[in-house]
Write a structure and sequence with these properties.
5-stranded mixed beta sheet
């Protein structure tokens, strides 16, 4: 092959490669645009719902009556709440789930669930949520996996807080609402706008909770009172009663030592903090929350309850549900029982999780300390 022929062949190969790269980039841009459009639609829907909620005349939720039947004298640690897992998540798109499956083949089958807006869940009796939170700009967004699994009934955290506050104000005397915040930074490369969970981000989160919830927020300072630290307050005073916590909202940082160390790095006993932590029971920041998701590990849950902790467990996980696991969750007397399938949204096989007697909140029907 002479040099002229070689150059022509090389040019043809390079042009073909360039064309393939261009096609791939165009396809990628289309995929990103489609997924981003879905997220933008979620934001518009969330904003429109909040606008309508603000304009509604006052009215109470159907589930408030069950809240008011719980005795005010009941200690918070004797209260049982039905919770939802990944409470913000809407159904994923086929495109997004296909892309998720390319990296995590088992995930699409485990993500076949979705939740209603927070207000609708509260109206139905849910009193505990789990929110996956990611810093973005000066605010925060809720998404399971950036870009590919980010459809949400509550994509904007500030609006989610307003939704909680509005519902709380319209339902005086409601049971305390417990919100577990899972700080997430996995797959952050899929959204260049996401920031790190550093001390500044946690400071903004504290400020957002104070601004969004005001006096509705019940935090570590209120729990500690004039005691030296949170474990001392738990040992000497214990958690307040249901009556003292009515109308309040409690935020808890999900277990994860890496994030806990950042959050407590400048305040070992959570002085001025907005969130409680899931800390060892003798740590200065431990007011008594534990995430023990497997209800069949009964000994661990009972040990935590004997220490006066508030335990979250899961009645089902990864779309694997069974009456046996639900029964184990209820028999454990964990105070927060989380599910992907509350009574108003059962699984395809008819399974759903509920508390004994059909109530959404009760005392668990027995001793919760395991004694």
């Amino acid at each position: 092959m002479d040099s002229g022929t070689f150059r022509k062949a090389l040019r043809a190969v390079l042009l073909s490669i360039a064309a393939l790269v261009a096609v791939a980039l165009v396809a990628l841009a289309i995929v990103v645009a489609v997924l981003a459009a879905g997220r933008a639609a979620d934001r518009r829907d969330q904003a429109a719902r909040l606008e309508a909620f603000r304009a509604e005349p006052p009215g109470i939720a159907p589930s408030l009556g069950a809240d008011l039947e719980i005795p005010d004298s009941l200690p918070f640690t004797r209260l049982r709440l039905l919770a939802t897992h990944n409470s913000y998540r809407a159904a994923g798109t086929r495109l997004g789930l296909f892309l998720v499956g390319l990296v995590e083949p088992e995930w699409p089958a485990k993500l076949a669930y979705a939740h209603r807006p927070l207000r609708d869940q509260l109206d139905s009796g849910i009193r505990s949520f789990e929110l996956d939170l990611r810093p973005k700009g000066l605010g925060f967004v809720l998404s399971h996996v950036p870009l590919v699994d980010q459809r949400s009934a509550a994509p904007d955290f500030a609006l989610a807080l307003e939704e909680l506050a509005l519902w709380s104000d319209r339902n005086p005397g409601h049971l305390p609402i417990v919100v577990i915040v899972e700080a997430k930074d996995d797959y952050a490369f899929l959204d260049p706008g996401l920031g790190p969970w550093d001390l500044a981000a946690f400071g903004r989160l504290d400020a957002a909770l104070r601004e969004g919830l005001g006096p509705r927020l019940y935090g570590p300072d209120q729990f500690r009172g004039d005691r030296a630290d949170l474990p001392t307050a738990r040992a000497l005073d214990g958690w307040p009663t249901v009556g003292e916590l009515r109308g309040r909202i409690v935020f808890v940082l999900h277990e994860g030592e890496r994030f806990r160390k950042v959050y407590t790095s400048d305040r070992a006993a959570l002085e001025g903090a907005s969130l409680f932590t899931c800390a060892p029971s003798d740590a200065p920041d431990s007011a008594g929350f534990a995430i023990l998701n497997d209800p069949t590990e009964l000994a661990s849950i009972k040990d935590a309850l004997r220490e006066g902790l508030v335990v979250r467990t899961r009645a089902d996980a990864d779309l694997e549900s069974s009456p046996g696991r639900l029964e184990a969750a209820l028999a454990s007397f964990a105070q927060i029982v989380s599910t992907d399938f509350p009574p108003y949204a059962p699984a395809p096989d008819g399974y759903y999780a509920s508390l004994p007697g059909g109530a959404y909140a009760d005392s668990g029907g027995g001793p919760v300390r395991g004694d």
